[in-house]
Write a structure and sequence with these properties.
Four copies of one chain form a homotetramer. Chain A is α/β, with parallel strands linked by helices. Chain A contains eight helices and five strands, in the order H-H-E-H-E-E-H-E-H-E-H-H-H. Chain A has a five-stranded parallel beta sheet with strand order 2-1-3-4-5, sandwiched between helices. The interface between B and C is medium-sized, with 31 and 30 residues.
Chain lengths: ~200, ~200, ~200, ~200
């Protein structure tokens, strides 16, 4: 019988963390975020997503799903991302709420009249203060000292290692997938209808 | 009080899925994967990671963590990924086990003597059959019909939408983060030691 | 005085190659490509770009410029790339015209009624045969044996090294930037007008 | 006979620009850059590449070629980029020399004792002043006002459109490919030898 004690402990801790998410996430914050996304949908506004490192990967997984739902969505830093304007929406993801390029992106978006939703563990962080709306997702234990992501990569700095260091990203992935489920519901999309759309090409 | 019923249901389903992962994942499979990773570490061998779409994002999150642990790790399709050779390791992630570029990558790796670990929901899939070792992570309900990822993107085909369609990716992210925790344990790395390494630059 | 003979020779060869491009590129082929792009613009159709390795980088540089001109443009393999349909346009770049994922992308696009323009050195290549229209850009000396890009990366295979191996990419970059210049002219866009658009945000 | 006047003019201007590069690039600067790269090779040091937007794409094309030559090379912002230390090398590309993330990366690299080579049109720019060594590649006409790349993307700001706006990137691509040719020469690598290495896997 293999001894995978640290593996088992991490799996248990992550599972316990995900189980507590439902109580930890404020439904008023969720409702407001959903409202802002539904408005972006109705008005054909752009939804930009930004995040650095693993938060950036989680953000891209969300953007993929938004695109599948028919949103006009882009990821900051990718090739074809257009400029935004009034009432476009930026979803800015940073556990610490201090990552320089994410805060700068939020400030730039505000400057042109776009709305900013911050997803962060710290409601008093610079990112949260810049945002129009904040959804607190727990999991990040402390803030980083170096706020510039490229500099952090060059300096070899990263969040504490697993399992503690990844709670925020896993929490955010689970949270955002649940947001997608609610959007599907509200947009009246069903798997079946979407399959019908695809059937035309098969 | 906001009504976020579909959000709540998705969160509950994802949480229940993660809670069952510990029983669902075979520890013999985990142990063998850990052994192969430890060997790659000891011999300074390369660990390549490959996946398409959201599985690719989860794979990249894993590669980041391997790199933080000091592995020589690369992601197939990125800029600086080198060729591999005998006893290098390819971690190939595909829920359905049928994604064309992932299966082709596994076959190419085997051809030059590299070892392949498949992470998939389907132990009888083409990917699993190509691999030296398979770890089954549940979550993908059915296999895709179109196996070429770029073609699928062009055809607008994607896995069923949330919450069902994302169980495999979330399961794999949680699984791989737990693998990182066990590797940290086995490599004798502690957060503290790693901080000490970083302290020299602060 | 430094001796940089190989540097000087490469620079001279690249310069001579670029100087000959104007004669080498068929204006009827250019005109037809411009017509297809103008149609995509007029009808609000999507322009997808696909390429592997360095050709993929050149393709992305083109997509950036198309986006700046206001095209609805995406890069195959990036996060938010939507499916395409009838009369959307795929620009497929492959020097050899044999790269597997690029040919597969071209075939998928044709299947759903999208138009395909191949940019390649080989007018008889599989890619060229799949395409609705071919623009021949010289520079690639021979075709690759392994057609799957991910496999080629894993196998450590790449085009011959500089300067010979990069003529196609440099030729394509110069060619596509000249296409942008002509599109600007035809769309009646001037630097000045575009600056005026930006002035509102400064 | 098609009228592609703007296309022809752009092609002519780009060709004339490339033809003048050989005189425009200072061979002492080239020699010093080659020396720094050869030292990185000899000592097994890391060569990081950083750039934003189209300069980033050109940087990645260079990194691919360095990797093919056997350098330990990475691109800042990609998944598996490690931290650097004393005598590692950062190649920082920015036409204006003001792009925020590139300058920040250069500063971070200096802080840990890595060497920085700036590729820029402006020898008095912030990037050039941060660098250990500067190679001036002409082509960028003026400096940007907004220095944060992500902010520029969000604000829809970009360099002037073709052909003027792309001279720096094309010049840098031609320049860096010529650097690769000289490195091949100095490292005694020939196409033939490298093919022999590949033959073992075919």
């Amino acid at each position: 019988m293999p001894n995978t004690k640290a593996f088992d402990a991490a799996l248990a801790e992550l599972s316990s963390f995900v189980a507590k998410l439902s109580n930890a996430i404020d439904r008023e914050q969720v409702e407001k975020m959903l409202g802002m996304l539904m408005e972006a949908w109705s008005w054909g506004k752009i939804v930009l997503v930004v995040g650095a490192g693993r938060s950036g990967l989680v953000g891209r997984a969300f953007a993929m799903r938004l695109m599948h739902l028919g949103f006009r969505t882009y990821v900051v830093g990718e090739t074809v991302t257009p400029g935004v304007g009034p009432n476009d929406l930026l979803i800015a993801i940073s556990g610490s709420g201090t990552t320089g390029i994410v805060v700068a992106a939020a400030e730039a978006a505000r400057r042109v009249g776009a709305k900013v939703i911050a997803i962060t563990s710290f409601p008093d962080s610079p990112l949260a203060k810049t945002a129009d709306h904040v959804v607190v997702v727990p999991g990040r234990a402390k803030t980083s000292e170096e706020t510039d992501y490229f500099s952090r990569q060059i300096l070899g700095m990263h969040e504490p290692l697993a399992p503690l260091g990844t709670l925020f990203e896993i929490g955010t992935m689970v949270f955002l997938d649940s947001i997608i489920a609610e959007l599907m519901h509200r947009l009246g999309k069903t798997e079946k209808e979407m399959k019908a759309r695809h059937a035309t090409i098969e």
